[in-house]
Amino acid sequence: MTHHEVVVVGAGFAGLAATMALRDAGIDDVLVVERAASLGGTWRDNTYPGVACDIPSHLYGFAAHPNPDWSGVYANGAEIRAYLERVAADERIAPRLNTPLTSASWDDDRWRIDLGGRHPETVTADALVLACGRLTEPRIPSVPGLARFPGPVFHSSRWRHDVDLQGTRIAVVGTGASAVQLVPELSRTAHVTLFQRTPAWIVPRGARAYSEAERMRFRERPDELAALRAELYDEGEERFASRSGDAAASALAREVALAHLYDQLDDPALRELLTPDYAFGCKRVLLSDDFYPAIASGAVTLEASALATVEGSTVVSADGARHEVDAIVFATGFASTQQPYAELVTGERGTLAEHWAGGMTSFASTVVSGFPNLFVLDGPNASLGHNSSVLMIEEQAAYAARTLAGRFEDDRDGVLRVAPEAESAYTAEIDRAAASTPWITGGCRNWYVDARSGRLTLLWPGTVGAFRERLARADGSEFEPSRRFTREREVA
What we know:
Layout: E1 2-9, H1 13-24, E2 30-33, H2 42-45, H3 77-90, E3 101-106, E4 111-115, E5 121-130, E6 153-155, E7 169-173, H4 177-186, E8 191-195, E9 202-203, H5 212-220, H6 222-244, H7 247-264, H8 268-273, E10 286-287, H9 291-296, E11 300-303, E12 307-311, E13 314-317, E14 322-324, E15 327-330, E16 345-346, H10 352-355, E17 374-376, H11 389-405, H12 420-434, H13 438-441, E18 449-450, E19 455-456, H14 464-472, H15 483-491
Parallel strand pairs: 1-2, 1-5, 3-16, 5-17, 6-15, 7-8, 7-15, 8-11, 9-10
Antiparallel strand pairs: 3-4, 4-5, 12-13, 13-14, 18-19
């Protein structure tokens, strides 16, 4: 049975960040496993027409790997995937592909990890890093009659490139971040019936291509590129106020969103249907310059209610409207608050899913009581609604690396057990900070809040700077004293 110092599960942004941070800390025996046939995470899975990032490209990357050659202010999905592949090659990170985690269990002083795929294997590791992503398992609602629909049915994150949709009638279910990118692209060559349960607050995107002269300048003047990244970071941090409920900032952002709607749509009835009735920031704020024009083009029929039933090739809305379609695309998001990997991981007192039965909890959004030497990246309260998630991932990776590198200090035996009271205190901090925000009080349903407990479990309710400072204050006291050391003192 092969043993490794650390096993990292996942080879997207989080997996690469963890591996780089561990190596920088002097931990070189790292096995990276990836269930898919290639690396890239979200940007490997999502290949729908129009897929792109809504964070500026020069902020959506690793600090140590700036890319002067992004094609525009916002990178498309293929570019981001290529960037991750290039970083992995430069760092000589070679994940073991087609190797899913099938189970992991804590066995006294190490992790026992079962790996599937073509060559199933059991390995052990001193530490386990879950870098599995938070938006990996598509969520498709249960719709009566769907199984009998005669045409193609698929989720936006599992795009069927073998299906020719030109000239067809397509039902798109959902109006979230994927849909506002997808619908304008589909509407260029097809007719779209768009099912909207809840409208989104949408602000201008301001997308544009970088000129060759700009890209050349970024290549030749890295200081200018670094200054741009710092500027984009500051702009992102400033957005936190409007997303988190600051009255003045939220009112101003709401005015911007409404002006954008009114500038791009003349039809009063459509304006009304597309105006949210909940607080700005309660749901994810979207960026688009072409969604409203697509709605106004005549190539999109807006059905302002949920998809209720499917009768043969007819889709029926909750309001009773009937539409004949040739294909159905679900842009309905992912399993977010209940992570699929949690059922596979067993600690000292049960599975991670059982520990999170009332919603995800942790200390430092990274380590979990009852799961020694386990680090979860991009997990509990580690997402953002205002800035680049890569910034959070890098902070978590650095915390995990320095914690593991120092695990033999202060009379520890290499086993790091989070004190339950440390996790409880951190959870209470999160709850207090979230209590008055629109994510909790804004009058909407969002994927940030766990329906089982009503707690904010996905978002960090603060700025990136505040997260960085919070993790910097973690001094090791979040872990219980070594059991071996404690026993030796009792004997003495």
